[in-house]
Amino acid sequence: MSTTLYQQIQQFYDASSGLWEEIWGEHMHHGYYGPDGTEKKDRRQAQIDLIEELLHWAEVETAENILDVGCGIGGSSLYLAEKFDAKATGITLSPVQANRATERAQKLNLSDRSQFLVADAQEMPFADNSFDLVWSLESGEHMPNKIKFLQECYRVLKPGGKLIMVTWCHRPIDNAPLTDDERKHLHDIYQVYCLPYVISLPEYAAIANQISLKNIRTADWSQAVAPFWDFVIDSAFTPKAIWGLLTAGWTTIVGALSLGLMSRGYQRGLIRFGLLCGDK
Question: Exposure of 82 by Cβ count < 10 A (0-12 exposed, 13-18 middle, 19+ buried)?
Fold first, then answer.
């Protein structure tokens, strides 16, 4: 990962994670609003529901040693550790996130079964065959080398273990290449959220095949999660959030002002919420 991109991602999450937790809680990912996106529910419950729906979709009923790639402040890591009575390890580029996740683990009495490290997902500091569940929820979009990222996930996965990857994608391009306007829309999203680029779900499936992942399955849940961004937009302009934005710094303010980019991306079918799972 280039030093510049690494620093941009780190600084973005160092600055914004505290405000996100204060307004939204510990889960830094989309919510699930039913298959067609019409279910009305509490915004935090929708995020928990996404985790549960992903586990059900991937047919995960147990886990002993979990790796959360792009762990944020430990939302998924600690939820999964408690649910499965498992050990959980989370990695992030943000020291602020790693420290906060560690604090949260202590409060939940999960310190003995969890650890949070600052590490690059493309060069993980773990031995081969270390984890029986590798979980990556909305971090793949930050990876400058998608092949290397998935190769690393596969390397640290135990034989018989499962990879679940959920990431932002653009629409499939088999039948029509991206237009100039779509490319500009994506570029604007990249600039705001420190992304090198995104690819389509079929391209991820091709990489998964290339690295010899077995029993590969994919799904597009864009419709189920698209309402999330409208709820985020509404929450960003409450007095509490506005004050938090002013104290969080310019990059966080720009991120809040640009939330409509993601909402419009879903509306026009450009942005897709892609799921991939497979076994080693």
Answer: middle
The verdict on pTM exceeding 0.90 is: yes
Structure tokens at 80: 């999964």
Helix (H, G, I), strand (E, B) or coil at 254: helix
CB atoms within 10 A of CB 5: 16
| Six token digits for residue 149 | 């990222």
Per-residue model confidence as pLDDT tens digits over 79-120:
999 999 999 999 999 999 999 999 999 999 999 999 999 999
Q: How far is it, in rounded angstroms, from Cα 111 to Cα 78?
A: 10
- Identify the bridge partners of residue 171 per DSSP, sorted by sequence position: none
| Six token digits for residue 76 | 């998924």
Query: How many angstroms separate the CA atoms of 231 and 246, rounded?
Result: 20
Cβ atoms 178, 268 nearer than 8 A: no
Fold classification of 3-279 is: Rossmann fold (3.40.50)
Find out whether 186 and 178 touch, Cβ atoms under 8 Å. yes
pLDDT digits (tens, 9 = 90+) for 257-270: 567 788 899 999 99
Q: Which amino acid belongs to residue 260?
A: G
Distance CA(61)–CA(191), nearest Å, equals 38
**Neighbouring residues of 269: CB distance < 8 A, sequence distance ≥ 6:** 171, 222
What's the token pair of residue 113?
A: 């079964």
* pLDDT per residue as tens digits for the range 166-182: 999 999 999 899 999 99
| φ, ψ dihedrals at 262, nearest 5° | -75, -45
Any idea how long the chain is? 280
What are the residues facing 66 on neighbouring strands?
A: 88, 133
